[in-house]
Amino acid sequence: MPIFEYKCNNCKKEFEKLVFAGEEGKIPCPECASVDITKKMSATSFMGASIGTCGSNSPKQFS
What we know:
It is a single chain. The protein has strands at about 5-10, 15-20, 35-40. Strand 1 (about 5-10) and strand 2 form a beta hairpin. It has no helices and three strands. The N and C termini lie far apart (about 40 Å). The chain is elongated and about 60 Å long. With about 60 residues, the chain is an all-beta fold. A three-stranded antiparallel beta sheet has the order 2-1-3, with no helix packed on it.
């Protein structure tokens, strides 16, 4: 369940929303209740599965 960033085209409020499948077109602005909103481009909050594997190729350290 991804969290998306939106901006209301009516009152210009920016907000985040946890979006469930099929809910995309029904999101109202929490400030003015308008459904005239735009999804903002934002960075993802997760990394791909390959992140973290570089550590497995590093030399082992012994204490």
